[in-house]
Design brief:
Shape: globular
Distance between the termini: 29 Å
Number of helices: 7
Radius of gyration: 16 Å
Number of strands: 2
Oligomer: single chain
Strand content: 5-15%
Length: 173
């Protein structure tokens, strides 16, 4: 766990701004350099790329929320990141295939890797429960999103992103 990618946060002073740092282990960066997801997306790099997307999503979401003075829960951060991972991976896969959308086999592969394949090996059972719930909620959201007309998806994503953690649970949970 000491070598895992993560977002590191601390208050600069009480009631002051946050300092943030994104930690990416050398092994992760090296792996992505050797198995560049801009060239191919496969079992060789999908998990590492998803980790990169997740940590960037945590940073951007936390920065946006804290700048606006809004609270963000850990469940919301993980839920948001799960959706971002799925959308980013499907976007990359479609672009690599020269298509506007991915086919069902690719969609199923990405869905499995993002929402089902991960082991939550944190020793804290509450953390494992939070990750499982975030993935359950993320999968529910992307499946609902797929059922919408393409023109409605951007509006739905913006509405989801702007919603507070409580509003997300009430409307999308």
């Amino acid at each position: 766990a000491g070598s895992a990618a993560r977002l590191l946060l601390r208050r600069v002073a009480p009631d002051a701004a946050w300092a943030a740092a994104l930690y990416l282990p050398d092994a992760l960066v090296l792996h992505l350099e050797r198995h560049d997801p801009r060239r191919a997306l496969s079992a060789d790099n999908v998990d590492e790329f998803a980790t990169l997307v997740e940590e960037i999503d945590h940073l951007v979401t936390f920065a946006e929320r804290s700048t606006a003075g809004a609270d963000v829960s850990l469940l919301e951060l993980e839920w948001h990141a799960a959706i971002s991972k799925y959308l980013t991976l499907t976007h990359f896969a479609a672009r690599l295939a020269g298509a506007s959308q991915v086919g069902e086999p690719v969609r199923a592969f990405i869905e499995h890797r993002v929402f089902h394949a991960g082991e939550f090996c944190d020793p804290d059972p509450d953390v494992r429960v939070r990750y499982r719930e975030a993935h359950r909620l993320g999968l529910l959201f992307v499946r609902r999103l797929r059922d919408q007309a393409i023109a409605e998806r951007v509006t739905a994503l913006r509405r989801f992103h702007r919603a507070s953690a409580r509003e997300k649970l009430e409307h999308y949970g």
